[in-house]
Amino acid sequence: MYNISADRFINTWSTKSPAVLEFLPARFLVVPGAYSFATSEYTEFPFSDRIKLYEHDHEARYLRLTMEHAGTVLQLQYWKQDPWTVRGRLEVLAHGEWGLRFMTTLAFGFAESGTVQRTNDGFDLSYRSYHFGVAFADRPVRACLAQTSSYMGREMEKNGYYAPFTDATDPLYLNTTFNLEETPVLDFALAVTNHPQTAADKAAAALQLSEDDLSDIKSNLNQALAMEGRFASCAAALRDVMSWNAIADHVNSRVFTSLTRFWIDKKFGGWFLWLDDVFYHALISAWSGDWQMAENNLKAAMGNAVPAGNLACLMSEFTEWVDRSQPPVFSFMVWKYYQLTHDLNLLARVFPTLLAAHNWWFAHRDGNGNGVLELGSSALCGDGHFKQTKLACKDEAAMDNSPMYDPAVFVPQAGTMDMEDIALNSLLVLNAEALARIAKTLGHYEIATDLLDRREQHKERINQRLWDEERGLYANRLWSGEFVSPSPTSFYPLAAGIPDREQADILIRHIFDEDEFWTKAPLPSIWAKDEAVHDDVYWRGRMWPPLNFFTYVGLQRYGYEVEAQRLAARNAEVFTNAFDNERACYENYNTFTAVGKSVDADPFYGWGALLPLMWVMNFVDSSDEGLDFGAVDNEAMELKQLRTHQGTFDLSLGATTEVRLNGETVFVSNASGRFRDFRMQDNYASVIVPAQQSDVYVDFPQLEPLLVRINGTEIEAASKLQLSAGEEQNIELWF
After folding, report:
1. What is the pLDDT of residues 543-594, one digit of tens each?
2. What's this model's pTM, rounded to 2 decimal places?
3. Cys-Cys with 605: which of 291, 354, 456, 587 at CB 3.0–4.6 Å?
4. How far is CA 289 from CA 194, 637, 641, 658, in A?
5. Which of 92, 98, 107, 94 is nearest to 140 (CA)?
6. What domains are there in the chain, each with its CATH number?
7. Cβ(76)–Cβ(67) under 8 Å?
8. Kind and range of the H or E element at 81?
């Protein structure tokens, strides 16, 4: 059930509000609320920009948020003493009215079925063999049994805060109410056991936890990825953004990281899954150290597979867009997950679906038959909104109203637009490469060879058809031959290894041209020479994290390390300005002002965390077997608690580079630049040291090597090696 470990049964899974705790096996809820006499309004805090989301441990061992209602600001904290026991605190930070007239509420009960009844000394809440003990440090002003969590609040809306309450005959909730005059700090506890008395006793005992005890629980936050140095909040942001957006989809009995808490109930009926976003979330979750949710995200995304072969663009309660897909980032994201985790079982499970989805594009999206593909909408697949329209094709692009597509038309008989798409084709080349690596890892060598052969042919077609010689970049092209305005997708070929070095050098000049793409918040979703850049409406001009992410991947692939760090640093600056000052992780940003707040920008959106991820990856990234790490300018920083298949990885950068695995120093060097493919296995270690201008050393202090080779040549075995200035050197040690 829900494919989640027991230590996560209690978490902020509810789509109704981030303030709600939910115990999944019983769908038992803790629901905070508030009533204001000044406005006669009650709320249970659905997510909005009046809610600020702070620290959130993956397992909900500690989390904190603030909520504003009618001018009153409340802070809510949860501490999980153990997987079955939670201490909560709801306290006022700022008054909007006299505290006597502002009522906080807490409801405890069941979303579907359960037993709630009074006993001689309190209340009994149970579901099957689970019993839920509830305790309060201060006695509620009033308590009653109700069918809904909002009963007392809605009655107060009608009749004021002295409204009478009566017990329901068939209750699902215990409702309680407090006022801020008498209870400005409300401490409470919840315990889950298999007996009513032990549940009550454990809840009461949790109220006795001291502030030191609570601080010790909060220290669990230190077990997650962390950074010290410039833009240090980028590391913790990965954890917080992913943890707050993790939700339970009760219709499909699964948990995954949703795009946002804003849209779930408002637009899609309680659950929805946009395809590419959840693949991004798998990557971000893996880097934050939460491999369990990374795997769940990949499984959820793969659940969008449909009989035609594609992975559907959108699945939700209200509508299913199976006639279209989204940009094929799929295999690349799975491979990046594998590089970090070496989860071979996951690779084997998803490979057939990934291969079918890859082949689907070539069978269904070559509208003019020239081998360079277009975005489309298939006629004989489902009946989703906008099917067989140009809008459906733009949905498949995941760039819904981009000006790039203004000149295009939908061609029904082809099932595509009349525009070949550089992002789609580049990502298919990248997808083929990643899929071939997966195939080789699984032993499917013939499939891998076929994929790589087709990849090379596709690269050649792209260079022939989508390279705009006059402007010196790649761009979307109409069947008529006309190129359209470029966007950051013009740089996706770098990520896929398509351009030669001369073409790549030309592309770099475009990226950092202030009249084209290098704005205050680069890169605008249409280049600055197009007037549509000033529309500042969604994909018409704003900066979007996925576009920057694949541009960054391309810069690193081609060895433009200085330029990659420049892009990552500008993105980290834009992100941390909003995250540190507003606790916002925006969906997109104004490219000229770097302001995120907009009616067209969700304030806590999952893929917004791609911006801080780039900053983390700038210092350490995964390779097929190991890790790449370093800084191009010897920037001082500390990175701690990166979870890898080699162990827990800590990195110190500055005058020297130091690597620790599971707390032990295993590598030290005074060489500068970015080290590649660092591996530490049972009897083997290796690293590629970048080219140096002076003599340097590398040291493996924990090793007593039996054999050492540099660039394939055996040398005298030693753990500390002196290296001469010159080209990069591949060091291997056996011990």
Report:
1. 999 999 999 999 999 999 999 999 999 999 999 999 999 999 999 999 999 9
2. 0.97
3. 587
4. 32, 19, 8, 21
5. 107
6. 6-223 (2.70.98.10), 226-619 (1.50.10.10), 623-734 (no CATH)
7. yes
8. strand 72-82
